[in-house]
């Protein structure tokens, strides 16, 4: 093996010699010519060695600085000197301004949707309005159109833990459950009904992603989408709250959050809201809104947190006004367990407030429980979370019951006496159940997401490989390997095993 | 599944055909055959006709099912003198692994040499899994950051790929950064040998692993001095990755450390000729 360095001075031949080493070049040249006689002599001055005398005038001259020091002191102190703070680490002076409040969090939560290093996948096509409900697209990866990307970003559908930032363009895998949910949504809109569905499943099995696909489908088909991206923001007492006047028992509004929500709705649904008009006047708002005004103008009234809740109420009543010409509506929430328990807020009597007494959550719970009829139909979707979820025993029980009932209905074995044979029941020795939660979840549909099958896994891995993020041949063996490593195709685990590994 | 015949088994099959010797049944079999039936079972050797299996088949044999086809294929293989239950052909869904196993298949050598060494250097409090996750985040950062702008005065190892190729091969990127700033020597001090109680500094060459360790420790030193801009679990790996990018772009002060060590090493190599040191190195 040839050494990449010049063995004489350890400088790489390809190196442009920096200015600091320039004097050494002369020494180097001298060493070459004089090599047989005195190979090391020219390099000797570089060695910090003390010599009693020197023939060189410059070196023979005593050092000025040392002289000055000695003369100033007058004498040389013997023995130890006291040094204070000798165990302190030498801190480097911090340069620049410290990060502003919220900047660190913004850095943490920042969402990147493209990677310029990734190879553009030639066969990747954009989603069209019917694609997600088409069974022919199962096990295909399809890209999100640019406009929908902006809408999804405005409604905070992307999460920082998802791998969007690794690929050239955000794309989603169409799986069987996707097509199932989308066709249910389409069917309910065709009948002007509301689909009420809870998505559940193991950790990283794609619940939020299915929610995102549902939102994509809604945006592509000109629905109105209202999305609550993190339910915990509403119930962990981190946003302001105030009692809604004239409610008994008291309900609480969250003005700052609602203002943010209205702005998100406005940005995401701008086109549709501009073409939808109010049916009644709203004189109670800070700005008078007559009938036949675009809903966009109504949403624009919310400028201050004080007016946010009345504006949201007006918007909601307009959207659900019966008999009016309205687009279908998708109302979705991620992290269901957080809204199915007692919140961390306190009433003036210092009692904990139930999450369903918070006005915005009550609205959602009402819609999920079937209390709201959307004029053109629509869907209310809720996704559970497994990694960030408080204990909500009633929700768990209710979802398990609905699932068992669905399974029994599918099998067709409805017992004669109507008793629920395989349906889980309440534990009689446990007191933590919540009747309000069970009432809400009494009639929802439940969809459990599991692993993807190998065909879908293969499509996904081919996309990864085509993007240059998976450096392996995608054959049956590789697909099987990753699929098995991922607990029979749990989507997030497949990502962890393939993309987020040190074995690239 | 059709039998996978490789070239050697095909040759064997051909040679069998050339001699056209049907296996002669043993006398005991013959005797049994004669006892059972009146017709002769002796092979017709001089009839001049080829055995039926070697006649060109005008139509494919009637196969009733897939299992039947497999069985027929096995029979055909027996006829060719091959074992129908060859483990490399039958009974393994993905075939048998090639031996000797490649090093990446070994549990202990699953990761690239540089990656596994550096992962252990990242580790704190014995938390290897956390270090591995950090490593994965470092590699992901390298994959998603724009291609580095190389500095010609800080040349990377000769033979390095162009900068645009680096992000898509993050392991190479990392290895290249570390190997490029790795020092070639360290200075070893022999106490009291320089006279007057001073130690005699002698340059000693380093092995590849030692060089990488030194380089990465330098990188970690400058990472620990850096201020983080964000928060959360990606912060530490991102700072490390930023430093690696800085190394490749020639902005890092790790290069100065390397230069310093090399200067001292070049300067003190005269000490190698010191007679006291002779037997010690």
From TrEMBL, chain A:
GO biological process: mitochondrial translation
A Pfam cross-reference name: DAP3
Subcellular location: Mitochondrion
Bilayer-spanning residue ranges: none
Region (Disordered): 13-32, 54-104, 402-422
GO cellular component, as recorded: mitochondrial small ribosomal subunit
UniProt similarity note: Belongs to the mitochondrion-specific ribosomal protein mS29 family.
Protein name: Small ribosomal subunit protein mS29
Source species: Staphylotrichum longicolle
From TrEMBL, chain B:
Listed InterPro entries: Ribosomal_uS7 (IPR000235), Ribosomal_uS7_dom (IPR023798), Ribosomal_uS7_dom_sf (IPR036823), Ribosomal_uS7m_fungi (IPR047988)
GO annotation terms (biological process): translation
Compositionally biased residues, Polar residues: 36-48, 55-67
Reported function: Component of the mitochondrial ribosome (mitoribosome), a dedicated translation machinery responsible for the synthesis of mitochondrial genome-encoded proteins, including at least some of the essential transmembrane subunits of the mitochondrial respiratory chain. The mitoribosomes are attached to the mitochondrial inner membrane and translation products are cotranslationally integrated into the membrane.
Organism: Staphylotrichum longicolle
Record's protein name: Small ribosomal subunit protein uS7m
Family: Belongs to the universal ribosomal protein uS7 family.
Location in or out of the cell: Mitochondrion
Primary residence: mitochondrion
GO cellular component: mitochondrion; ribonucleoprotein complex; ribosome
Chain intervals for the UniProt region annotation (Disordered): 22-67
PANTHER family named among the record's database cross-references: RIBOSOMAL PROTEIN S7
Pfam families: Ribosomal_S7
Keywords: Mitochondrion, Ribonucleoprotein, Ribosomal protein
